[in-house]
């Protein structure tokens, strides 16, 4: 992911937490903040030490980034997304992470393709 697509500063994270909407499933929590003035979305990741050691946390972050990278054309622009990984995410492979994130994408209506197309791709 390019630097302009990342959320790194604590104040940006806090703005999304405070003003954004959230949705969750067993593995992830997603916070979404509208930023209509922006042309692209930004992504912030948070994986607690409770989830696992550094290797596990970095693996989860890599998998999440990969899903967003592959689906960036189909994800709503002009928003900030913060993904928080929960403990069950530590035991997931790429396909499980993708499926779980897609579940959240559809619950929050940020995925631009129809559900029928997604089923055919998987």
Automatic annotation (TrEMBL):
Q: What is the top EC class of this enzyme, as a single word?
A: hydrolase
Q: Which Gene3D superfamilies match?
A: 3.30.230.10
Q: Which PROSITE patterns match?
A: RIBONUCLEASE_P
Q: Which key words tag this protein in UniProt?
A: Endonuclease, Hydrolase, Nuclease, RNA-binding, tRNA processing
The UniProt entry's coiled-coil ranges are none
- Please name the InterPro entries in this protein's record: Ribosomal_Su5_D2-typ_SF, Ribsml_uS5_D2-typ_fold_subgr, RNase_P, RNase_P_CS
Enzyme Commission no: 3.1.26.5
Catalytically driven reaction(s): Endonucleolytic cleavage of RNA, removing 5'-extranucleotides from tRNA precursor
Q: Which superkingdom is the protein from? A: Bacteria
| Any GO molecular function | ribonuclease P activity
HAMAP family xrefs: RNase_P
> What family does this chain come from, according to its entry?
Belongs to the RnpA family.
Annotated PANTHER family: RIBONUCLEASE P PROTEIN COMPONENT (PTHR33992)
Q: What does this protein do?
A: RNaseP catalyzes the removal of the 5'-leader sequence from pre-tRNA to produce the mature 5'-terminus. It can also cleave other RNA substrates such as 4.5S RNA. The protein component plays an auxiliary but essential role in vivo by binding to the 5'-leader sequence and broadening the substrate specificity of the ribozyme.
Checking NCBIfam families in the record gives: rnpA
- Subunit relationships: Consists of a catalytic RNA component (M1 or rnpB) and a protein subunit.
Q: What is this protein called?
A: Ribonuclease P protein component
- Say which species the protein is native to: Aeribacillus alveayuensis
